[in-house]
Amino acid sequence: MLGTVAAALEQGNRNIQTGISALQIAESAAGQIYTKLQEIYVRTQSAANDINDPDARSALQEEIMNFVDAIQKIASDTEYNGIKLLNGDFSDKYIHYGVRMKQTVYISIPDIRAQSIGAHMIHSQGSASSTAASITSLSNYVSSSAITIDVGGRTITATYEIGSGTNIIDAAKIASEINNNLYDVGFEAKAINESIADKYTAIASGTGSVTLTFYVGDDSFSLTSIEKTITLTDLVEEINKEAAIVGANLTAKEDNGRLVLTTTNGETIGIEVTGVASSDTVNLNQLIQGASAQSGTTVASAIRVGELYIGRDDSFSANLTSVTAALGTMDVGSATSSEFKNIYTIKVTTNSDAEMGIMITEIAMSKVDSVRAQIGATMNNLQSIYDSQKTAYDNTKEAESIIRNTDYVKEMSEFTSYQIRMQATIAMLAQANTLPQLVLQLLR
């Protein structure tokens, strides 16, 4: 029996060595995939910089796709003994190591081909609104209660107070709350607010000057005595200068005759124009994306809520409540289910696309890193079992040897004893037979 146990332990350790060899190949290939995802991440970060011209972004896009193709090839071709390891085929496998039934180690490596890694995402496009009214520190776009967000079955509250009992809707704050409260369960959120207005001609019709007030999250600054017909180049310069003075997270630039406003973390942007004549038309659509021109008023305003990206490795749904305010209803999305975006879908032709690409890559990296950790933990487990069974095998063989040697000595001792007795008996019988023979010889 001990011999059978020893043989089973020896075979179990051979099984373990085979399993470790396969896992080492898988881990090495997964490490290469992770390295290439890091390269993609760096390039999406670079493409998110609006200093890049279209040609630079096109070159970055080509590099990214080359890395994606390399990832697909590595994951599709990595194999051991004819078994694919990283394409999902090597799932729900068992390595038998023990003497008894069910003494196995479970191994399952998920599919990490390019088509299968990425992020389940919800992209909520923030709305914009314009009106013939004053913004007054964005307080007209508030709710009497905090904004409730239901993400993946968990509810969090984004409280962004700008005054007693008021809560402004702000994609940056929502993203921050999701990251602070749900990151530990795999969620990641990012807010982006890039406003690309219509082709610029003038702030308003007519002549004279106006006052432009910008609201960025809870910061604000004003440009006073600005000519209605100020050039776009000069307007961009004035916005950036005043934003820097107050520390507002707002950057302005000119792009093909359009005013582009970008916030650092996706904060809400508000613009208020005062000092216009009621006969003038205020070109809010040329100042902020999604707004419309206003006329017949001496004050006009527009607000734009940023885009919100929520991502996770697994599918989920989210619901973000709207905020009904004095100037209309603003929201950053409604109830919706996530959509899977693999790394093939990464596009970096715009800032918004590049930001989404960053999140897709981050979550893909997290998944591959998790797979590598899982493989490493399984290898450590197998190695521990191997070491333990090697000791058990040595002890079993030694015990078997001792028992066998002990039995041999005992049997030889008994055999010798029986042999001596038999020889003595034979000798006695021989002598007994000899005496009658002698008597017969004398009688002759």
Task: Provide structural commentary.
- Strands 6-21-18-14-15 form a five-stranded antiparallel beta sheet, with helices on one face.
- It has two domains: 1-118 and 358-394, f41 fragment of flagellin, N-terminal domain, CATH 1.20.1330.10; 126-330, no CATH class.
- The chain has helices at 2-47, 54-77, 171-182, 232-246, 351-443; strands at 79-80, 83-84, 93-96, 104-107, 118-124, 128-131, 142-143, 147-151, 154-158, 161-163, 166-168, 188-192, 194-199, 209-216, 219-227, 250-255, 258-263, 269-274, 281-282, 294-295, 299-304, 307-312, 317-320, 323-325, 328-330, 336-337, 339-342.
- 43% of the residues lie in helices and 27% in strands.
- The protein has five helices and 27 strands.
- Mean pLDDT is 83; it is low at 136-145, 159-167 and 323-331.
- Helix 1 (2-47) packs antiparallel against helix 2 and helix 1 (2-47) packs antiparallel against helix 5.
- By secondary structure, it is α+β, with helices and mostly antiparallel strands.
